């Protein structure tokens, strides 16, 4: 029994020795690192490309907002100026109307 | 198992483990390659698998929490990938009508034996004999005797119950001893 256990222990020892790590093939590490770097570069490029698209969209939105704002401002300004001109014309018409009323009144007095 | 110095230092300084991929490849490439080779019995395939597993580690580096986590992850992924590769090869062999084990035996005869003990015929043949064992027994034995893992750790890695792992270890060891004994007798007769 004890002999058998000793045999087993000896066999396990030999198994451990036989199953030591083997040397990795030459160049495995270099290949892995090269692929890893190339993937990192691709990821960076993809990220850069993505960022560039986002920047272009943002720039387009800002430009659209500026031009849209300018157009709206010009429209409001034109409307305001039109309103002002209309007010001035109405004021002038009121003054003219009042003057004509007075002239009419005097003519009526003189006619009597 | 101890963590390499640079990891312990960086962990201590920042309070968080910061992996260095190159150092990890240096540390684990032979373990990954040996596992893949002993599981598949094919050096070329093992090299491909090792490369894939290490690149997968590069992609998953952000999820790694410690050096032990990396070691566990690498063993698990290598075992799964090797099992997948064997399954694929078996399916191909079945469709071509060839016997996988004959093919593996041929490959192992071509494999240069590991130089552990020049005078020991048993040591030289153990790896070849291991290749002839059923996959689950071979996996248990490789993890136990190559990686020095406990049956409980093997159970977690292979996602199998501990009792099953213990049974695989026992049966595998018994079978290997019988076959090794036969080899020794042949050697003695030959001498």
Query: How many distinct domains of chain A?
Result: 1
Largest contact between protein chains?
A-B, 23 and 38 residues
Count of distinct strands of chain A: 0
Give the distance, in angstroms, between the N- and C-terminal Cα atoms of chain A.
157 Å
Number of helices of chain A: 2
Mean pLDDT of chain A: 91
The CATH architecture designation of the largest domain in chain B is Orthogonal Bundle
Q: What's the SSE pattern of chain A?
A: HH
Low-confidence stretches of chain B: 1-12, 109-119
As for the CATH topology of the largest domain in chain B, it is: Rna Polymerase Sigma Factor, Chain: A
Strand tally of chain B, please? 0
What is the total number of structural domains of chain B? 2
> Rg of chain B to the nearest angstrom?
18 Å
Q: What is the SS-derived class of chain B? A: mainly alpha
Topology:
The complex is a heterodimer of chains A (112) and B (191).
Chain A: H1 2-18, H2 28-111
Chain B: H1 5-14, H2 21-40, H3 43-60, H4 67-96, H5 100-110, H6 121-131, H7 135-145, H8 151-158, H9 162-190
Helix pairs in contact in B: 2-3, 2-4, 3-4, 6-9, 7-9, 8-9
Task: Give structural notes.
The complex is a heterodimer of chains A (112) and B (191). Chain A has helices spanning 2-18, 28-111. By secondary structure, chain A is mainly alpha-helical. Chain A has one domain (27-111). Chain A starts with a helix and ends with a helix. The mean pLDDT of chain A is 91. Chain B has nine helices and no strands. Chain B folds into two domains: 18-111, Orthogonal Bundle (Rna Polymerase Sigma Factor, Chain: A), CATH 1.10.1740; 117-191, Winged helix-like DNA-binding domain superfamily/Winged helix DNA-binding domain (Arc Repressor Mutant, subunit A, Orthogonal Bundle), CATH 1.10.10. Chain B has 191 residues and is mostly helical. Chain B is globular. The chains are: A mainly alpha (112), B mainly alpha (191).
